[in-house]
Amino acid sequence: MFKRILIANRGEIAVRVIRACREMGVESVAVYSDVDRRALHVRKADFCEYLGPAQASESYLNISKILEAARRSGAEAIHPGYGFLSENAKFARACREAGIVFIGPSPESMEMMGSKTKARQNMKKAGVPFVPGTESGLKSVDEALAVAESIGYPVMLKAAAGGGGKGMRLVATPKELAGAFEAAKSEAQRSFGDSEVYLEKFIENPRHVEMQIFGDTHGNVIYLAERECSVQRRHQKVLEEAPCSFVDAEMRRRMGEVAVKVGKAANYFNAGTVEFLVDAQNTFYFLEMNTRLQVEHPVTEMVTGIDLVQLQIRVAAGEPLPYRQEEIILRGHAIELRVYAEDPDNNFFPSPGRITRLISPSGPGIRRDSGMYEGWVVPLDYDPLLAKLIGYGENRTQVINRLRRALVEYFIGGIKTNISLFRRILLHPDFQAGRIDTGFLDRLLTEKPVGDERTARRVPIVALAAAIFAQQPAPGAQPARNQDGLHEATPRTPAAQQSSTRSGWKSAARIEGMGR
Amino acid sequence: MKYEVLVEGHLHHVELERAEQGYECHVDGEHYPLNVVMTARDVLSIIHDGRQYEAKREYSLLGETHIIIGSERFAVEVRDPRSLRSRRAAAAHEAGPARILAPMPGKVVRILAAEGDEVEAGQGVVVVEAMKMQNEIRTAKKGKVVKIAVKEASAVNAGDLLAIVE
Fold it and tell me: CB–CB of A465 and B44 under 8 A?
């Protein structure tokens, strides 16, 4: 086993990996940029290495700086987390050349799966089912028109190097194709430095279901459980669950076997995810493979009882998988909510800033994987994912109720988060019935939020609370004490009114006179 | 003590009177005996008629005050009739030039309207990038852009003036 591991990431996933390290008796090395000195992952780690400026290309995406940090700290292995360098074959190869173990698949497997068109060609050979479309990049608009004609509209243009919805265009008629082709190409070039785009038949409102696989360096590959990831906004996942409510044991076995076939065709080892689109008839098609740990891995951990991060580290150290396929047994149900620093009432604007108050839920069946703490300032330089709230229970209904209860307890003050959105999702009759597809969230967002009968009762209490608070000094009146014990600049707050003194008039005037 | 409290834009007259177990209160003339304790900074536990409410206070980036009860959020504004500032703030709500403020810190990536342009309510004026997302900041008021207060590529803080529409 490794003595020391460097985590080339930040936020909740870095904290997650550091926790696994500590549980295994492995020392952890955190890395940080200028704006992350106070970040939670730095506070949790045994060792820390400074990378550089906030800009990711100067810090978390900078291969030479990260390898240098690994050398300086004496780390024997690097866990890349997700995002940043996690699916960068060049980085995996640079680690290998530097004699440092990359905790993930080989650069060769990553390259095979990294390009969606290359993955298609290889998987086709292995007999994996696909959505009809092109196997290689489109050379011209004419070629795109011919292919679209043969498979039938609507079609989807996609960036070969893509992900996260970038470089994707839906085309409903031939006359839209030329413009969309150019737009997708230029967006792909800007986002990924590669303008190759391909075309697929568009499946209306499919479900997005993915299968977790795991391989070791001895040639074993198993599948763990599927995850339902259909609740998305702008192709970004918002909520995930395991297992998927409409997948039965037989379908799970068939999907799992296809996923293992994909993994074996890529000589895959470590954690990987095979994504499928599922149509209304429950036919599934291979979409792509993610060659890393997924954000949503906790739901699989809950229903299988397996710690995926620890397993990643063991497999990277050369250990064989400790489970055979038939030993993987699913139990219960889990749902993950991705808590983002964004405002659902205001067009999902990002909302960085200081977390002035943090009240976290706990109790039965609740797990929090978080990268924040009270007093921390959410930087505006990175992804807005703050934390993941994971609910576990005997069955789906119990999990929904547990998460609804936990959301009432959860309070993040000072910044806006999407917590209120989850309340709407969990209460929605379609969600509760499992009638979800990738169009579900967009449909929900066009509906008017249902009024709550408790609202009217609460209004006078709100008015009273506001007045009582107004009698207390505002939080800015006292210097905020940060968790590291250092005094921070006082946050800007509106005027405070104090009235416990005899003359309210005088007191109000005095506070305003102080220039607050 | 008397307050005027706006809850989601609706005016309520609140009277607070200290009592042994909290407050004797009136909201719009109706009697509300309350048992109140502050359990943490910005967190009140209120018992009224046997029912418990946990009320939390927070300030939005633009300086609005919000009260959260259970899972509901209410924008509030307290006017202490003795406070000069609240009297001024109340006056500021009337018609006049509308200031468009940055809702979050970030970088101005594009200016969509020039000074002198006529804009419709809901039209984008400035694009601010934060957390890898570009966000169009729109005007709530229809009128003429009389000032653009930022330049492309300039950094802004939450609450900074972006533009004025008259």
Answer: yes
Is B71–A462 a contact, with Cβ atoms under 8 angstroms apart?
no
CATH of the domain at A89: 3.40.50.20
pLDDT at A123: 83
In a domain, A117, yes or no: no
A384-440 pLDDT, tens digit per residue, is: 999 999 999 999 999 999 999 999 999 998 888 999 899 999 999 999 999 999 999
Under an 8 A CB cutoff, do A352 and B130 touch? yes
- A345 with A426, same domain? yes
Q: Cα–Cα distance between B23 and B45 in angstroms, integer? A: 13
ipTM of the complex: 0.70
Q: Is residue A320 part of a domain?
A: yes
Distance, in angstroms, between A411 CA and closest chain B CA?
9
Measured between CA atoms, the residue of chain A closest to residue B76 is A466
Model pTM?
0.79
With CB atoms and an 8 Å threshold, state whether B58 touches A381: no
Range of the domain at B78: 2-92
Q: Which residues contact B112 (CB under 8 A, 6 or more apart)?
A: B123, B124, B125, B126, B127, B136
If one counts the domains in chain A, the total is 5
Per DSSP, the residues of B6-51 read: EETTEEEEEEEEEETTEEEEEETTEEEEEEEEEEETTEEEEEETTE
DSSP type of residue A328: -
pLDDT above 50: residue A500: no
Which domain range does residue A166 map to? 132-201
Same domain, B52 and B6: yes
Report B:92-151 residues touching A (Cβ under 8 A): 103-106, 130-133, 135
Are B31 and B84 in the same domain? yes
Q: Catalytic amino acids of A?
A: 292
B37: domain CATH number is 3.30.700.30
pLDDT in tens, A271-324: 999 999 998 889 999 988 999 999 999 999 999 999 999 999 999 999 999 999
The span from the CA of A158 to the CA of A170, in Å, is 9
